């Protein structure tokens, strides 16, 4: 560890005496310790008994599965809506063609 010193000039004003003073203050700066780069993550499961840790892991896994299923459900809902929209559009088109065909058949031949 290196230590480094720095001189600072400190000026003050004493209100009671009205005197300006100046003094030199010596400040010593020391290097801070380095933070380790290793993984500092902390698992609360290490504080509880192993049976509870296993149960907590199961609950976490279930929660993860529920989140995945919820995402998949939203995706499937969107796909179903898209298919429904396409089906309704096809039915509207079929109706239009059917009306057009009826109109053509009802016209008297010239």
Describe the structure.
Residues 1-17 have a biased composition (Basic and acidic residues). Residues 1-22, 91-110 are annotated as: Disordered. The protein is α+β, with helices and mostly antiparallel strands and 110 residues long. It has a domain at 48-101. The protein contains one helix and two strands; from the N terminus they run ββα. The chain has one helix at 50-106; strands spanning 3-14, 19-30. A two-stranded antiparallel sheet has the order 1-2. The longest helix is centred in the C-terminal third of the chain and has 57 residues, at 50-106. It is elongated. The model is unreliable at 1-10 and 21-27 (pLDDT under 50).
For the secondary structure, the number of strands is: 2
Cα gyration radius (Å):
40 Å
The succession of helices and strands, N to C, reads: EEH
For the biggest β-sheet, the strand order reads: 1-2
Mean pLDDT, to the nearest integer, reads: 76
| Oligomerization category of the chains in this entry | single chain
Give me the number of helical elements: 1
**Category from helices, strands and their pairing:** alpha+beta
First-to-last CA distance: 108 Å
As a percent range, the share of helical residues equals 40-55%
What general form does the structure show?
Answer: elongated
Strand proportion: 15-25%
Low-confidence stretches: 1-10, 21-27
Largest sheet: 2 strands, antiparallel
